[in-house]
Amino acid sequence: MAAPGATTRVAPRRWGLSMASHEAISGELSQTARSAWGGGVAPFATGSKKLGMWLFILSDAITFSALIMAYSYVRVASPQWPTPFEFYPGIVKATVMTLILLTSSVTMVMAVRASKLERRATAVKWLLATMAFGLAFVIIHATEWAGLIGEGVRLFKNPWGAPLFGAAFFTLTGLHMTHVFCGVCYLAVVAVLTAKGKLTSEDVEVSGLYWHFVDLVWMFIFPLVYIMSVKMG
Questions:
Q1: Chain segment 191-218, per-residue pLDDT in tens
Q2: H helix and E strand count, the chain
Q3: Does residue 58 fall inside a structural domain?
Q4: Its pTM surpasses 0.90
Q5: Which residue among 1, 16, 73, 182 has its CA within the 20 to 30 Å range from the CA of 33?
Q6: Domains identified in the chain, total number
């Protein structure tokens, strides 16, 4: 039995052992996190630029989804919804625009591949080709708009009835066309900086994510707005 006033060191030794075990476990967890995240800097081994672009695409996808659903609702709710697109030139022109965007996705893939192989000059050439396809899409789309406006289509009136047709059509296709034009400007900046060696392959890949998203949105617009609005007879 310990003498009165004597102190015991059992508790401190046990506490010290507990703290050491806790530090060891924390170290192991930290090491696991670093190995999974590539150093703890980029979660899931995704760079901040790519993660930011994915978040932007997600938010933009919500916007386009809302517009597509609104267009679909207005179309179903309007018994006299116009079908102004004849097979020629309306559907043919829209099909050409679709092929242009699909081809631009291929050239964008080639640009990303060239940049990963550190072939900057080749990457710039493919970026310029993608920009050319994007501009061709915008020009053809603008001529289509001009034709519809010439026929009397306005935001809230048109010669065929269903006043909301113009607002729905111009808002949905106009927002997409704006995205394509902004994408062309974006790729122009990427091409210039890539040529100067100021960007990495990741930057080219991030721009490719945006471009592929714009192309994907058109794959929903094309059948909904054009194929389902072919003039019969």
A1: 999 999 999 999 999 999 999 999 999 9
A2: 6, 0
A3: yes
A4: no
A5: 16
A6: 1
